[in-house]
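task queued by scheduler; priority normal; single chain, no ligands, no partner chains; default sampling; output format set to structure tokens
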Amino acid sequence: MPQMKRVETMSLNKASRPVGRIVQAAGMSLRRSWLIIGVIFVQWLIGYFDKTAMSVIAVPVSKEFGFSPSQMGMVLSAFFLGFAAMTPVGGYLADRYGARRVLMAVIVLWSLFTGLTAVAFSLVSLIIVRALFGAAEGSFPAASSVAVAEVMPQSHRGKAKSLLVSGSSLGTAVGAYLVALLAGGWGWRPGFIIFAVLGVLLSVVFWKVSKPMPLPVRPSHKAAGGVPMKSLLRRSFIWKLVAMQFGVGIFVWGMGQWMPTYWVQAKGLELPSAGIATAIPNLAAFVAMIGVGVLVDKWPGFEGKLIAGLMAVAIVFVYFTYIAETVPLGIAFISIAQVAATSCAPLLSIIVLKRMRRSVTGTATGIGNFGQQFAGVLAPTIMGFFIQATGSYVAVFGIVMLVMAAALVVALTVDRSPLGNLGIAEDEADPRIATQSTAALTADETADIAGGPGNTR
């Protein structure tokens, strides 16, 4: 018997509703599902080692090449330019071709371009390689959301997605320390080679562990099963996601890219100490992000208000960080701000998993995440110009607070945004759309849901 069963379920009203999709992997246990999620978590972790590295080593890289703050800002932004361009595309590809294929391609390509960073020789070469690295990694967040929808029941999706997104904080924390340590002892280039090798090894592990993941279903009609991009873009809910992600991105990729340099230049820390100062807030955020997933699984429906409250806390403590008179106090304040701001990230992914039809999970996540990555394109360069022009980091803190305040206002309205035929209720209303865990279904049960053995293939 083949290991994989693929089932296609048509919507009840073909003329008026997009086609639902059910893809189940026969015989996959919940333990196996969590193992797959665990390997994807390690992928996310390694990805953030690479992603964080350039901001941590901005000072030695600038010295080697003679970069000004604005030029270094361009290098930092290049990654996000590629990432932002691929984020919506990656979500669509994951919906169409399946999470396993997309995730596998992503980790192989990002490992390649991480390694090539080590041989960069000029401003232009660094910008090109970092942009390609960003493009390679851009499909990952949305594809990981599709993976969660494919292998986890709805009651576990908040915890699963929070675990994955928390890899960004843990990866930033551990990566910041490792990169600073390696750069201090061996220079800034060897770290990229080490991370590239780790990525290649992890791709082999993922390919073996993820074999039970379901494959996408090829729809029997051209319009059936297609991702309704126009319908998504007409929903105010999607644009609110973009705005809130932009607010989170300004903090994560504005402050995140410049804070290591801030600790060195404005506060006089040595590079390893700056790495530790960067790591501490991210370790705190890692724990908080997992807790957010458990909370939302228990009390769903208030994600928007929770995001608004977290953004308010972040704004207050960003200001306290700026006026802090000592480094330990500044680290304590930025840690609280980091916990609050980065806890919004899993919530913004969970909203999609909890409220939208499974067939649009990847595309909707990709469009929303574009907002965060576009902030990453703009923030490092704009902040670099202000730092160069004024010799002060006040613009970094001011821009973050203003943009997050606007995102906070948007978050207060998102719980009331209608989804219409893109809401998860459309799947739940259709008796032929499965709502159980992949692990809960045997091959025979899957066939019954689809209408009989004749519908399996």
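post-processing summary
- The mean pLDDT is 78.
- The domain at 30-440 is CATH 1.20.1250.20 (Growth Hormone; Chain: A;).
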